[in-house]
Structures are given as structure tokens and as C-alpha cells.
Amino acid sequence: MSSGIDTLRLTAEEALALVDSGEVSSAELWQAYRDAINEHDGELHAFLTLVDEPEGNGIPIALKDVISTRGVRTTAASKILENYVPVFDATVAAKCRAAGMTLLGKTNTDEFAMGSSTENSAYGPTHNPWDLTRVPGGSGGGSAAAVSAGLAPWALGSDTGGSVKLPSAFCGNVGLRPTYGTVSRFGVVAFASSLDQVGPVTKNVRDNALLYRIISGRDENDSTTVDVPPVALPEGTDLKGLRIGLPRQLNEVEGIEPGVKAACEAALAKAEELGATVEECDLPLSVEYGLACYYLVAPAEASSNLARYDGVRYGLRSEGADFREMVMHTRHDGFGDEVKRRIMLGTYALSSGYYDAFYASAQKVRTVIKREHDALFERFDVLVSPTCATTAFPLGAKSQDPLAMYLTDVLTIPANMAGLPGLSIPCGLSEGLPVGLQIVGPQFSESTLYRLGHALEQAIGFDVVPERLR
Amino acid sequence: MSITWEPVIGLEIHVQLKTETKMFCRCRNGFGGDPNTQTCPVCLAFPGALPVPNRRAIEETIKLGLALECSIADRAVFHRKNYFYPDLPKAYQISQYDEPLCADGRLVVPTADGEVEIGIVRAHLEEDAAKNVHVAASGRIHGATATLVDFNRGGSPLVEIVTAPNIHSSDVAKRFLQLLRQTVVELGLSEAELDKGSMRFDVNVSVRPLGSDELRTRTELKNMNSFNFAAKGIEREIARQIKIYENGGTVDQETLHFDPTAEESAPMRSKEEAQDYRYFPEPDLVPVHPAPEVIEALRSQIGELPTARIRRIANTLSFYDADVLVTGGLDRLWAAVVDGGADPKEAANVLANSFVASGIDPDAVNPAELTKLVIARSEIPRGVFDEALAKVGEPGFSADPYTAQKAVSDASALEPIIAAIIEANPGQVEQYRGGKQGLLGFFVGQVMKETGGTADARVVSELVREQLGA
Amino acid sequence: MAITKEEVLHVARLARLELNDAEVERFQGQLSAILEAVSKVAELDLTDVPPTSHPLEVSNAWGEDIPHTSLTLDEAFANAPDRDDDHFRVPPA
Predict the structure, then answer these.
(1) pLDDT value at B258 more than 80
(2) What CATH number is attached to the domain comprising A169?
């Protein structure tokens, strides 16, 4: 803090103003965050790779280590990519670069973004800045912890089943999982192609909208992207006319913590005060079948997406007498247990004899989930629930039980299966830990999500700085 | 009692499209580059790289489908076919499965005994594999080898055409392949050169008692690089299977590598476990909806197809001549020469024999000059004609200097020369008169030599016979 | 829904994952539990439901047939574990 810059509280919008006005140079700003990293990352382990000589004349950013960065090691937190240095930028990285952003480093994640706690990183877990004994959520725990602890003004994550929303909730950040197809996946190490979306992790809602504006848009290198309607920067707190639906199955999910429920209810009361209407509704099939659907579709796609790690063109290569043996050894040595589990699960779901019962059924369930949401959006502008039934859990609490870990995502998955945008904002504390409120809207409704998020943010007045760092 | 066996043959043909760029990236498509110089993150399957389909390749596949009277799908989908091999960088091939671009077509094959209709089950688009080179590795244990991979070819657009198993002779199979090749070449889709691998095909063969409609176990012949070898290989395989059945045995389903030099088909190395390609819809790509106006525009680009032309020309010439002219790509030149006033049969003889042997590109020929040559053929010395024909494809070629060299057929000019030669070769004269009629050619040759090839060989031959008989 | 040891090994081979005995045992138990949970999708009557393989209803995304600049050899081989002149080298296939 020698520079006088309080990285814990400075928003990206404020940082931009400082650099634009010439009050602080881009290099000074970057150095302030680098100092913070040097001070705190030893205990947090939010970063896997640090950049020493940044390029650019804007404000800094941290990128989840599944985003390819030209000349900067990109590992996906896997041993199989331990020494992989991309020769090209992901489109989102290129857009950040074009906007002048200076790269601080690459943040920790569950290996190949598979996990809900960042404990599946081959390089060790990230710790939650609010409580070092707890997980930051996952898979993008590194980005969330970095923003929360003032190690980066903002960051990018990627969200397949909840990997932006969940860590944002656990670390007290604002995280957006955008509408599928609005942010390019080109150069983002693939987990599940029909679900992966890159999203911003920020200290507040306006920063989030600013960053989403920069990274979104159709990309000729990603056939699944579309033209994106303009995104409004949220102003004011008026919510008149906004119709909020409260899906019972999300808000009354089994195992919900009382403190989480209370924080969400308080936020909704504020929304009503600001003019919104709130009404209960139902998503019976989406919640009951969403998790099963997700854990077939995502692993199936992953089993194919991760087949390219064969030790031929890049990455780890283990010894083997012939090609087949080399590939089998490489993949045994290079992938961690969770990745292996999902590859096997996905391979099984696609294999002959099981395809119809598993993968084909899951794709139909996906239609059911989509239809159920579409029907609700005829009556509601947004659907609101907790982002997770609990707050951050202790390190190690679920790491021996894959199924328990999977259940962490039960509230974020349904919207993801339908390609819907979801915003998680902090709405209070439960026993000293942040609670995330998930706001889901129809496709391309990011401006609406930001409008509600911003209004609630003003009304709630959540202090984003972890108590132990204040 | 002996059974009459009916062969059942199906073909699977791969044609490499001659687009400028590859199927899913914009690296150059085509031969000739130094190894691995036509590669990018997409065709090397770097993490995060995504496929973008080549619009022209899609349109050309539709065009071929139209030429084969296929129905064009309203919705076509790319699938992933998963397997590991060094030449397949993603460890899946993007292909088409149950929703191909073109299906349910036919190609009518004219034969000497009438027309045979061959069903086209499907024509779909996929990407080619790269090239493996298996070599002995230096500095390793004796006999050990390595595989070297060049990814230049990897990702080239390939159309796969699958026929119904309703071909019942090797001759029809061969004619079908020739006709298909000519169709592809004329549509401008591919050079379809067998020796360069831009057209490849596999043959499925089984036999059954004539009159039955069962489909017995089939074997697959792979890697055939000529139509004649294909016909030979099919014949041999039919004979092999009949022999097995007649000896009370059963045919195993297997893939045979046809080695034309070994005169037998050898089983290829069997896979360690049954293949399970785990096809599923490629989530990185969106469906193709060919617009009706695009289909109509492509249809309008298709001229009169080879089958129709064989049918038409066979009204004037024999079926064989019509077939040779059309499948050899010579019929348009033939028609022009006939239009210019040449005799149709004479023109066909010249084109189907001397011209084909010369290897001249028919498109380089000025039909008017070739017409003059064909008309003058019987009146000019053979040597002069051959010399002229060899040059007929050169720019600015004129037939006039050649047609001006009318052969000497004046008996009064030729008789003294013949007399002198008879006198100079008493030994041969005696032999001839003793019954060795074959020596006539010797005398004619001597006269041609003496006259510098300007004599009319037919007239010479008559005069020689006359004088020797005297 | 239990998965047998043989099925674990079969799937691992399809996915080219070498597994030792302890791993086979561990994954057998874990995968059985997960498969039990995900087989829930088969409970629903999905007879007339079309599959969704893509969350957005878009089609006809393609590029024009115009060449771009390929990688240099240095870039292509920058991360290669084994290189033989201008080829990628692997153990014999």
C-alpha cells in the first residue's frame, strides 16, 4: 500500500478513472496489485503463474488458467499441461489486451475446471480470503479469491456448471455466467463445449457490466457465438415493474442453511421495497433432474474434449513402447482423479449400449429443463434463489466424496443447462461468510440481471472486503 | 447340384475437395507444402481451438448430392467420431452420422447390356486425417520404429459417398467408380486422382445364392488405388468366398488389405478391442440449414451429367466408344470435332486411342485444328499425323502445315522405288515367295524409309504385293 | 446401478487411461455411486421430447474459403515433446 492505492476497495471503474486521468500510471497500478499478490498469495494460492513484464497501458486483470495467453503458461491446473505455453491468445484474452489491460497472472482452478472447490488443482488448493480454512468455491476459486483479497481489480472465470457463480458467492464477489454463445470460447481450454462460458468476476455490478461489454460479442473463430444486444450500465435503484419469480425447488432445496435463507429473504424484501413484485413459482423437473442431466452431458463432452491430450503435439509425454502405451501412460500420469472419473463417466455414457439410456436421455431432459424455464419467463423477468445452499465449506470436507461435491452445484446447474445467464451477487453474511444470491433471466437478459443486481447492491450495502483483511 | 452365386457389392468412396482452405480452419488445403507448414491451432488441436466450417465445402457437397439425385437435408449435423491415432490430433474426427447433408440418391450406370441403377445411401462431409510416416528410428534398438506425423493434410475436406449394396458385378462396380470420378471432376469439386489419394475407396463384398435376398457376412477391401485393381480384387474375393461356402465353411467379417503384387488379399492387423466410436453431435458446431435458394443456385450450375451423355452418344456410336469418351472426359471435344465435319467414328477412334495415349489435356485443344487433322488423317503420312497430334495441345497450333503434306499415292512415282528395293533384297523376296507372307511389312517399311515417310502406306502395300506376286 | 471391474477397465481402455489395481477398485465404487445418481434421467417419459444438443437455436455458422496465415514451424513445434526435423515424432503406431 506504499502507492496509496487501496486494492482491497478500489473498483475497476475507479481504477480506470485513475489511469485515464493520469493520476496513477498503468505501471504503478499494476505494481500495486503485484505488491498485494506478493503479500497475500502465499497464504491464498490464487495464482498459478505470475506475469513479470506486463504489456498494455490500462488497468490490470487476472485470468483463469484455462484461458490461453500467448507466451504465458496456461496449465488448466493440470500436470498434463504443466509446461504448455500457448502460441496464440484466446479471443477473450485478445479483447482484454486490445482494451489495454495488463495481465497480472493466471489464476488457480480445479483441473480442467472440473470441481466446485478448487481443491482438484494439480498445484494445490486456493484458500478462501474470508476464512483460510475454507474453500473459495470452484472451479474458478483463484479468480474469486484474487478479486476478493484485492489481488486483482477484476478477473475472468469460466462457468460450465457454476464455476463463476459459485466461487463468487463463496468469496463475496459479483460473478456473471453469461448467456451461452455471447462470449467466445476460442482459446479457452474446453471442458464441456455446449456449456462452457467465460464470465467476469468483479467487486461490484457495474464493473461486471463493464467487463462483460468488453469480452462479449460474436467471434468468427467460435461458430457457437452470436451477435449480442447492447448491455446497459446499471444506474439507480428503481425496480418498478420488475417481476421476480422464486422457484420453490431452488429456494427450499434440501440442506439449505438458515443463514443463507435469511440473507436471501432479506434481499428479496429490499427488492419489493424498491418496486419489484415477488411471487413463488415452480421448476420441479429442472431441479430434480438437472444434476443428473449435467453429470451426463458435461462428462460426455469432456471425455471427447480431453482426448487431444495424447502427448503428441504438446504437454506431458510419458514413456511407452508404442503409441498406444505412450498415450495410456501419459494420460494416467497427467490427469488427476476427478478428471479421470469424468472422462470415464462420459466415455461410458457415450459408449455403445449405454448411449440411449444415458447421453440421449440427458439431451432430452435438457429440452425439458429449457421448456420449464421458458414457461416461467412468460410470467417473470428474472428468477431468484441462493447461488448455493451453503456458504464456503472447510477444505477437505467433500474431497473424498465426489457425489457430495457434485451436489454443491445443484442450484446453479439448471439455468446453465438451458443456456441462461445468471448473476451471483453477495447479499449478506451467514456466520461470517458471504452468501450469494443468484439472479437468472432469459437468454440475452444480462442488462436486466445487472439492473436488479445493482439496485440490490445499493440497498444491501454489503462490504466486499473480507473481515479479516479490513 | 450346384448353386449359382450372386455377388453383393457396396462401395464407400472418399473424395478430397479442392477448396482453397481446409474443412474447419483456413489453412491452405492441398499438396506440396513442406511438412507441418500448413497448420494452425485448430488443425493441430491446440487446447481451446475451435472448428469453423468451410462454406464452399458445404456447398460443393450439396452440389454433388444434387448430381447424384440425393435429397438435401433440411437440417444437417456434424458429429464427432472418437478414436485415438497419431494422425488424428483431436482424437476425434468431425464427420456426419445420422443427419448427413445428402441422402437417398442414385447414379445410373450405362453398360453394354443396358442401364444399372446404383443407390446412393448418403453423401456426407468430414475432415481428413493427417499423414503418418512409419520409419526406423536412428539410435534405437534394432527393428524399433517411430511414427512421424505431418499435419498438412489433416483437416482437408472429404466427401464420403456410400452406395447401397446393390452392385452385382465387378464390371458395374468399376464403371460406377469411373462415372462417379468423372462426375466429381466435371463438377469442379476435386481432381479425384487415385494415385495422389484425392479419391480413395473401400469395397464391401459378399455373395449369396442367386434369387435370395439375404445379406451374408461381408469383407472389406481397403486401400485400392486403381479401378482395374478394384475389379480384380473384387473378382478374387468373390471367388474366395464362393469356394469357402462350397467347402461348407463360413466367411469371417474382416478387413482385407489388397496387395496387387501379391495376387491375394491379406487380412489387416486386427484392432485390440472392438471399435466403439462413441458418435455424438459436435457441440462446437451448429446445424446446417441449406437455404432453398442456395440449393437451386447450385442445381443450376450442374450441366448435362456423364450418364446422360453416354446415353445420348451411344445412339451415334457404340456403347463402348461412348463410355470411353465420356468417362475419359473427351466427349465434348469429340462433339466439337464432329460438328466441324469429321466422321463421328473416325473422331472417336482418334480420341479414344492416339489422343488418350498422348496424355494431352482436352481443354488445351483448339477443336477446329483437331477437326482438320482428323479429316486429313487418311490422306497424310502416318508419321506426319502422329507428329501433328502430339502437338495439337500447344498454344497457337495450326494443322495446316501437316495436312499440306499429302501422302504420295501416285503409282508411277512409287513403282521404280519398289522395284529397286525388290532387286536389292533377293533373299527376302525368295522367302516371301516361299510362303513367308509376313515379310510384306518389311518391304513396305523399306519403301516408307526410302520416301521419308511421305508415301501412302496403303497404296505402297498394294503395289508391293502386286510386284512380288508377279 | 453398479459398474463391474471389467466395465471400468473397458471404459478406461476406450479413453486410453492406464489404471492400476487400486485405481480400478476406487473408481469402480465411485463410478457406481455416480451412475446410480445420474441414471435418474431414465425415470422420465421422454418419448416425444426432442434432444437439445445446443442451447441456442442458431444455424449456418461458417467461414469463407479464404486462406489465413499458418503457424511458423517454431510455433507449431513450440510445445512438442519430441520432434524429428519437421515432423512430430511418436512411438510406433
Answers:
(1) no
(2) 3.90.1300.10
